Amino acid sequence: MPASFRTPRTTGGRRALAAAAALPLLAVVLTSCGYGSESTDKNDKANVAAGAKKIEGLDEVKIGYFPNLTHATALVGDQEGLFQKELGATQAKYTQFNAGPSEIEALNSKSIDIGWIGPSPAINGYTKSQGKNLRIIGGSASGGVKLVVNPDKVKSLDDVKGKKIATPQLGNTQDVAFLNWIAEKGWKVDAESGKGDVSVVRTDNKITPDAYKSGSIDGAWVPEPTASKLVAEGGKVILDEADLWPDKKFVITNIIVSQEFLSKHPKVVEAVLRGSVKTNQWIKDNPDKAKASANAALKEASGKALPAEVLDPAWKSIQTTDDPLAATLGSEAEHAVKAGLLEKPDLKGIYDLKPLNRVLKAAGRPAVDDAGLGVK
Length: 376
Description:
By secondary structure, this protein is an alpha/beta fold. Helices cover 39% and strands 16% of the residues. It is built from 14 helices and twelve strands. The two termini are 32 Å apart.
């Protein structure tokens, strides 16, 4: 699940957001480095061509991502060995995370070098370090977020007023989007407590379907596959967040890298980005195989594959993309500021899209834009 924006405005806010961030961390399966669960190297050796050399003499590159469908590029690229093919004899080592704060901490401690992560923790990590710890170097996914409700209790969008609606975490990407939508409806909600014209109930995605079944919530503004799990339980999609954005596109997953690693190993970074671009193309060219590959990766991570009634609609609602959709990241930050969950950030320099644009140019593809938020 994406991590939260954190507010420096009040002591109570800091405590609440720290607690919200700490809960998911307890769920992370710890490795020797203490951050996430390591995936197997099932494809690494098989995809190293005979006589392949290490890029820049580097033994390995440490890559982090979440076992979520919104991280489909990383799931499939790992599962199919597509990153390794681009890295030659430099080994791709993968670590999976359940929460944004733990991935940012791992990046800061050099336990990973590159990561797939949501916009909120990327903004958080960048602003907390005063622009010194990471860069966003590419896009990965758009969409895959829906407002699902109990159709017996909520007949229209106006009926959401007075209801109990879950979001994954205080200040996380979906929480901010829901609070912004509530404000645009003219309703009032205290962002930190979630109390007001709508009761915003912060609930871990893993238990949201059970909360829905028990009747303790009337609906949820959540990412996939949680949204489709609710539909499988009788819920109804009453709003797709994509409909609120220009061209129905908004960033849900970015690729980040530590600034130190980018500076020291630019060719390795470009190799990973080539792997990402080629993986996204493979997903588009082989949608059924890609869906099965992603589900196989999820089964390895959790021990259980998603059933077709959940996987199929969830997969359709997520679009992989090389474009980081930078303008939408700026809008998401503005929404968090309006909700009182973030001091106005200076995001100039958060992007470095030069490596990605070199990869895209070599592939005969158009360059992507940083919306004025890139390094000079």
